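Lab channel / #folding
Pinned by the channel admin:
"Please post every new chain as: sequence first, then the structure tokens as a reply. Keep commentary short and put observations after the output so the thread stays searchable."

First post following the new format, from NK:
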Amino acid sequence: MLNLEAQILSREIIKPSSPEIIHQRKPFKICLFDQLTPTTYVSMVLFYSLSDTNFSNTTNILTHLKTSLSETLNILYPLSGRITDNLFIRHFDEGVPFLSARINCRLSEFLKHHEIESLNKLLPCQPFSKESNDEVPLLVCQVTTFACGGIALGICTSHKITDVKTGLVLGNVWSRISHGSHENLVGYPSLAEASLIFPPKNPMPQNILSMMENLWFTEANYITRRFTFDAKAIAKLKAMAKGEGEATPTRTEAVSGFIWKCSMAASRAISGSLKPSILAQAVNMRPREKSNSLDAGSIGNVFWWASVHSNPAETGTELSELVNLMKESIAAFDDEYLSSLQGEEGFQAIAEYINQLEMMFSLEKPDIFAFTSWLNTGFYKVDLGWGPPCSLALFGKVGPKFRNLTVFVETKCGKGIEAWMTLDEKRMSVLEKDPEFLKFASPNLKISSL
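Reply from TO:
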């Protein structure tokens, strides 16, 4: 029987290599959307086969990773600190926990394994679990060595300061430093830009934070599965989702709408009745901000949720109609709306939005399905000195309090979409057997198709 237990060999703390960062940096101010995001870890595992490299043993690999990470923290120094008072990041000498582990199987054997939950053995923290302490490490890493010499780099970042763009900034800077490329990294990126445009609220009302936690977390037995939509399936869904006289939807819109439609059908199969439903889409505001200063590499949660409400008993569940609703909610993130979120008045606009959602939930108790797209991010290009990853994965078992969430990542060839879907156990059980869903979505019984 395959032994998938990971043995922890060492635990260290990696700090910025520059004393100036540790002792002279001023506290880093977080932005409004960081304040509103609960403390929970988002994760990724990058797999490297390490064939044909100059790194001949595990010691060399670990030394290289720890040294390059320490230098990376000179630039991305907030990731080395701790959040205090839900307002600042301080104590940059606290550092990043770095674990070394070993697993007694080959990398190829692990990737063929059918239990996605096994991925958590490669992660230093449980992903998407509600953390009770805000002052947790903002970045935690685990390097697991396989019997064949391949490695898995498990990265957990606190969602309190990290969205997908921030994760990509980390990957890019760490990659460049791993290759000895330090030029143009001084002062890059413009880390604190988000807090200038979306300043934090001080003090942040506790009732708003409580409402945000309720929106993020509800108790259930959640199951994560990975489904693949190949290029042919995506093309069909885009054609089906195109309304009369409407522009062809993007692949994200078509697949999101399809999953939402099937999830509502699963809810009906469980409850026996049509139930109101909300789809929440994460919208990256960096490219939408007029000054473009945010797209230069600012870190933090520079996204917000575009929410769509559907009552199937009234509006139906035709795919084209659902996708149109999604398009309208995204289109609402126009210049006027983005301007209303900026400056000292931005909190009021956000508070009104949250209060409206809270009122809707108390009256209708709708289902909530959240979607976030990591497409076109380039995580398959994170080269830390031995070539790009041969595979990547997101997470296994999430915490007992979470929400229904779908994360889109590209297949390695770039033409398909992997949907990492987390649903409560009952809905997932129905969805996995839904013939309409399985016409387009291929269940992946292995951690990777490598």
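NK: The CA atoms of residues 88 and 334 lie 29 Å apart.
TO: also worth noting, The first strand starts at residue 6 and ends at 14.
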